[in-house]
Design a protein that fits this description.
By secondary structure, the chain is α/β, with parallel strands linked by helices. The protein has helices at 35-48, 56-62, 67-78, 85-98, 110-119, 132-141, 165-171, 185-194, 225-231, and strands at residues 22-25, 32-33, 105-106, 124-127, 150-152, 177-182, 198-201, 217-219. The longest helix is centred in the N-terminal third of the chain and has 14 residues, at 35-48. The chain starts with 21 loop residues before the first strand and ends in a 6-residue tail after the last helix.
Length: 237
Amino acid sequence: MPPNNSPRPQATPHPAGGPQGAIVFDLDGTLIDSAPDLHAALNKVLTEEGATPVSLQQTRGFIGHGIPHLVRAARLECGIDPAREAAMTASMFRHYMAAPARLSRPYPGAVACLEALQARGHPLGLCTNKAIAPTRMILKALDLERFFSVVIGGDSVAQKKPDPAPLLAAFAPLGPPLLYVGDSEVDGETALAAGIPFALHTEGYRKAPLHDLPHRFAFSDFAQLAPWVASGSDAPA
């Protein structure tokens, strides 16, 4: 990973009445289950290539580094000529942009959690490796854009996660950071590199065992997150 010289914002302390500060979320596997739409678009690409379609579970394993990486992983899985990768990636963007939120849905309780955090005065942001155009389309389609005053996509800055630059760019206009919420190894590495506490959504697309991802808090149900933030707890869970 190239060195990142951006200044690291310092996590705000917990004042009386609970912690204050900004919270940034990942998107895929954290706030929404986007795999069904990615799976549908990817299989259209593979069909065009004369390849065998992949399963939804296989597609979940490809998610985390953006669409170019997803296409590369699928190409390798299907043994397709590397010379086809650029055309496959362009086709994937075309199919995905045609319907990026037809099957994707927020995880149960995610919207209520965002409402609770916003009501408590936490500035909220989004940092994803998904390109910014489909990200904004999805946020609008699922009525999530109202929560985020800053949205950083995979092509918003020169680097992608796990480089800390995108996450730091998301926090920069929000004020002192409190927490980054994600679901994967990529998110955990990003938070660690940025020096920001990490909360792990365990129902996303992570591949490693839970204990292999350093985190301040792990949750399977979004109903757990806002109360934990309000408690100001620093204990790992």
